[in-house]
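Section 5.1 Outputs to date
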Amino acid sequence: MATQKSRHSGPGEQRPGRRAVLGAAVLGAGTAVVGLPGVARADAKHGHGGYKDLPVPTIVAHRGTSGYRPEHTLGSYQLALDMGAHVIEQDVVPTKDGHLVCRHENDITATTDVAAHPEFASRKTTKSVDGASLTGWFTEDFTLAELKTLRAKERIPGTRQRNTLYDGRWDVPTLEEVFQWAEKQGRERGSRIWLHIETKHPTYFRKLGLGLEEPLAKLLRKYGRHKKNSPNFLQSFEPSSLQRLNKLVGPPLVVLLSTASSRPWDFVEAGDPRTVADLIKPEGLQWMASFAQGIGPTLDLVIPKKPDGSLGTPTTLVKDAHDADLILHPYTMRNENTFLPTNFKKGTDPNAYGDAFGAFKTYFETGIDGIFSDNSDTALLAREDFVNG
């Protein structure tokens, strides 16, 4: 990664030859941003140099455009692509018969209509997943055929009531269906469709005989997405999952990092005493750089919050990660007040939109290489302001 430093230009700079996101007219929440797919096509013509050729800051569509559609549905992915998101995220969990499906969690109680299916009432159970006790329905207790009888729904209807309009419209997609969708969209648009694929609870599933890495690698090879410059990132909160993938396939790897005091679950299982606070020290970053190309820290690791919930002083994480030749794709920006730092909230309604543009600007100014967002259109316009400001 000797050439990695070229990605870390100063605030507001673009790499030569890349097009900025053009002054896109937003037709309304949940609708496409005019012209952005064309920008994606133009960017793609600059070659197949892998993740280093992505626009910076890179906009990653978090579970699709989940601010406007139920998360991890083909509808959510499609809208994100139509808006012009540079990369679209999938979380993968297994079914009972070993198929990889796209859900943020294996607990599908809140994201499907499983509770309305009396034939599956007896499947409701309580499990310990990575040390947390959860009661509900879980993908590993369903065959793919059974899971396909369910319909997706909005996970947080209290916050995103408008998204409930789309409840029942889409099913739970398999990762293979997403690859097929991406291939079709890529052919139609003349560009490669970038994905950001996360292995969820890999140690938990490996103990059940449902290891994620081997079937993921097999699918990546089947669709030609297994090479160094293939258009997808592979990410996980468990470093050992990425180390395993690193031996199987070649795409760029991103270590996800939760709160500073937390420990990756594979560390807990292995008796490794290190916390995230240890991993974001220079020696920890160098260790991650030995097998990964990037990190995905929670935004609080980039700019901690003060006791009142407002943003404090940025840490040295961006500089330290860049010194280790790691890119940063922190998570997650959302438009609603309830998710924003207090100094960017507007009014008293937690579900109303706050000053998301102000928050994006503050995060971009730290020098991050990209950001996960539930609202791709907002993120792209904020990026436009930042790049051209």
